[in-house]
Amino acid sequence: MGTKLKKDDLRIVVIGAGMAGILSGIKLREAGFSKITLYEKADRVGGTWRENTYPGLTCDVDSHSYTYTFEPNPEWSHRFPPGDEIQAYFEASTTKFGVDEMIRFNEEIVRCEHVEGRWRLEMKSGLRDEADIVIAATGVLHHPSMPEIEGLDDFEGASFHSARWDHDVPLDGQRVGIIGNGSTGVQIVSALASRAGALYHFQRTAQWIMASENPAYSEKEKAAFRADPDLMRNIKHAFDSGEGVAAFSEALTNADSPMMLEIEATVKANLEESVQDPELRERLRPDYRAACKRMIFSPDYYEAIQHENADLVTDPIARVEAKGVRLESGRLIELDVLALATGFKADRFMRPMELIGRAGVKLEEVWAKRPAAYLSISIPDFPNFFMLNGPNGPVGNFSLIDIAERQMAYISQLIDLVAEGRCSEVSASSEAMAQFDEERIGAAKNTIWASGCKSWYLDSEGIPASWPFSQKRFHDEMGQPRLEDYQLIA
Ligand code: NAP
User: Fold this and answer.
1) Strands 128-131, 118-123: pairing kind
2) Which of 362, 394, 417, 429 could form a disulfide with 467 if both were Cys (CB 3.0 to 4.6 A apart)?
3) Which of 140, 184, 312, 320 to mutate to test the pocket of ligand 1 (most atoms within 8 A of CB)?
4) Phi and psi torsions of 238, nearest 5°
């Protein structure tokens, strides 16, 4: 059992210096903590925005919503922010709020064990540290998922995962293949259709696409934002809490709601109106419900795939060969470049880090069936260990910044219990965890994600892992912890 600690003495370690880790550093310092270290495995901040640099990289969440509440940015160039601007925004925020002096770069935490009331941390480099509180801000989608396609290593051209884009490889005028048509593949195709000599988009399952215009902000608009930051806050508020996201969240969690039917009608109309050739249109038509997979927002994918250089390939892939991709039909598509936009292992979270809680409880065993956390924040027997954007939280088409800010405000209240000496250890109780998980799984069955498609939202048993309740419930839950759901140890 640990001893009581004062705020000045509490040592807090944050794992990861992406969007959520930077936020943690800013908020902890603002709250008066001074012994804070962020361990970052890479040599730069930015997380997903550091790792993803593929052509066309854009966030499909409104720029002014994909922004920290306390750091509005009048300089966003477009309604939807390009990846390089987002990376620059996080780098600038890190410097402005003094987070860079808290970060230890090139340090990957490989082991984290709770011993005698404290967390003992081990880095890959051999470095060791201790902490009273640990916040895992390790992100969700960061372990690339390589497709199980025979012969990938035989390819003689350039091949890489979308999150490991090789910018030394020429694209203009080249024969480029892209496997995968999630949000990533669709953005790459849109960016490359007019650049590649020939572009082949390998589609295993069709996707519903919501049209979304992406206008540039004019200099006049940016000047207005600079003069009156409330204009940006209004856009953010409209996106996060207004009709848009609230109604979309209601639709996702109630597959038969009028809003979901409206969304379905909208994406069907987009397909009908945007694709001229009836044969291509049918190949692009999904046989499952809209938003079952993460909704794709794109201003230009249908236009790109109808470009004279572009070819939608729907015959299944048999294997990859030295010269290109062999289809089951026997056709060989010869390629210079093969990009794998095949997604991520969405159930990893802070793993492969070894996490050992109270009395030797191993995370790998607790999560053997599926990753789970009470309200996405805390795991029984892992005291003073909190997660941002952990399992079962809201993901999908929402601003993960808004979500992380609310989670951080909640976690801060739990940390204060320790800082103020009300307890030395806090973690969700086993009863609260079990009850939450039961209710969550029950509600997950009514969501659109469970309506009959495959996606990374589903766990190994086919149960949607994402927050299955309303957006309002998430906001209410994050307002204040229900302490009766926690085990507090003096
Ligand atoms: P994804 O949505 O998981 O899509 C992976 C794609 O690869 C699917 O089309 C899948 O086909 C295909 N695929 C996988 N293995 C294959 C195989 N062996 N043969 C053929 N096709 C195969 O991955 P993602 O597009 O990288 O997106 C992941 C998530 O990242 C998104 O859902 C989103 O949360 C985030 N993201 C966000 C943005 C943004 O703008 N905010 C942009 C990019 C990504 P099937 O459908 O048949 O499985």
Assistant:
1) antiparallel
2) 394
3) 184
4) -60, -40
Residue nearest to atom 36 of ligand 1 (CA): 183
Q: What is the pLDDT of residues 25-50, one digit of tens each?
A: 999 999 999 999 999 999 999 999 99
pLDDT of residue 5: 55
Average pLDDT over residues 429-455: 95
Considering the entire predicted model, what is its pTM?
0.96
**CATH H superfamily, domain 152-207+293-340:** FAD/NAD(P)-binding domain (3.50.50.60)
In this prediction, residues 311-327 reach a mean pLDDT of: 98
* Per-chain mean pLDDT for the chain: 95
Report the distance separating Cα 488 and Cα 482, nearest Å: 12
Determine the distance separating the centroid of ligand 1 and the alpha carbon of 182, expressed in angstroms: 4
CATH top class, domain 11-143+346-489? alpha beta
Residues near 387 by beta carbon (within 8 Å), at least 6 away in sequence: 135, 136, 137, 349, 350, 373, 376, 377, 378, 407
Question: Pick from 77, 464, 428, 472: which is nearest to 240 by CA?
Answer: 472
Burial of 484 (0-12, 13-18, 19+ CB in 10 A): exposed
Tell how far the Cα of 45 is from the centroid of ligand 1, in angstroms: 24
d(CA 346, CA 464): 12
Question: Quick one: how far is CA 311 from the chain centroid?
Answer: 29
Long-range (24+ apart) CB contacts under 8 A made by 263-271 are: 263/210, 263/290, 263/291, 263/295, 264/289, 264/290, 266/210, 267/208, 267/209, 267/210, 267/295, 270/209, 270/210, 270/211, 270/302, 271/208, 271/209, 271/302
- Tell the residue number behind the tokens 């790792």, with chain if given: 51
pLDDT level of residue 2 (50, 70, 90 thresholds): very low
Give the pLDDT score at 243. Answer: 66
Domain with CATH 3.50.50.60 in the chain: 11-143+346-489, 152-207+293-340
Q: Please give the pLDDT value at position 395.
A: 76
pLDDT tens per residue across span 65-92: 999 999 999 999 999 999 999 999 999 9
Task: Tell me how far apart the alpha carbons of residues 219 and 230 are, in angstroms, rounded to a whole number.
Answer: 17
